[in-house]
Amino acid sequence: MDREDRSNVTPDAASMCVKCGTCRPVCPVFGVRALESSGARGKMALIEAVSRDRIEQTGRYREYLETCLLCGACEEACPSNVPTLDIMLRAREKMASGVGMKTGKGLILNHLLGAAKRFRFAVKTGRALQGFMFRRVPAASGLRRRFPLPLIAGDRTVPKLARRFFTDRFHGTVMKGEGPRVGIFAGCMTNYFYPEMGEGMMDLIADTGATVIVPGEQVCCGMPALTGGARGTVRDLAVQNLEAFEKYDLDFIVTGCATCGGNLKGNFGALLDEAGIRKDRIAGFVPKLQDINEFFFRRGLPGQTPAETPQDAIPELKVTYHHPCHLGRLQGIRDEPIVLMESLPGVKYVPMDEADRCCGMGGSFSVEHYDISKDVNDRKVKNIIASGTRTVVTSCPACIMHIRDGLIRNGHGDVEVLHVTDLLVKLRGNKRPT
Question: What percent of the chain has pLDDT over 70?
């Protein structure tokens, strides 16, 4: 079943599952918990039972549904083509309107995330208070801090909120070129935690001759709301983002976040249609979306090394690559990052075992179920270390945060974790385009 044909999937589709168990070996949660309720087969059975009124929705049922990373590995492996991701999302929507969300989560997703000014105020308040809420980790581990709060596991390493957010610093037409007009969709992780990542992406795109535009009114892509069952919130966010970008008459809308890209490409068309948006406006937005790997793969990389530098004078950097679930499975972008890295002078790409196995982040999953999340992450860390490289590259800021946490927790804080744009910037130096 094609992803674009799934807007009408309902929890009833869980009956398509024939209970063969092919999904179990590929499920990262089942891999560390080995409970029937941990895998897709068990969850499809529960959803089907609720759909047919055999059992009621309860807090325990909600817990079963929420212990899923939504990585899509089960769907990819399924011989019956059961659309497990969409079934899970629809079941969570039904659950949210039935037994309801946990109080704090419901407050954030239903009343905070969709209200742009309120949400930004909350994030800025968090930035002001983070000095009191975090404790530092050794300087050798970089710009990370640990949560001492009961809400989040005390041994988890996270980045601090940026001093200046990306869209506060850059907005409107940032760089003018002779090429296409390219809008940057930053995403919350890049905007609030890794603005230097967005700046690097912006500079690299400008190096191709494009005009770079950062719509300052852009908001969250809404993936946390979508996965939490708050479809109304993500629908509102979709409309806000459409309005923020369409005024700039863009040729492309590029993001460096695999999760944002997966949601924007895979769900915004249906969400905007539900919101009553005209077809021509939707057609002027969704087809223009591209991941940064996709953009460079199609248009070519900007020059990374000076022409006068001999090839054999460039030191070799060995890197491995983690495939984000939302890039490979949701967008079908798997080869592009590898081809790009292999084309870079001075870079030697080393394949990693289980490179496309989930790192365990899963957005709010890693907050609500950190015990499971870190066990999944440990498997990823072992594969990174086994590759023999000291640099791991990926294409999702959330994966970067989680993998860094796992490396530090396992005593490998010296291993570098880079976004693909960080790697490109590192190779060309920090010179801004003129």
Answer: 88
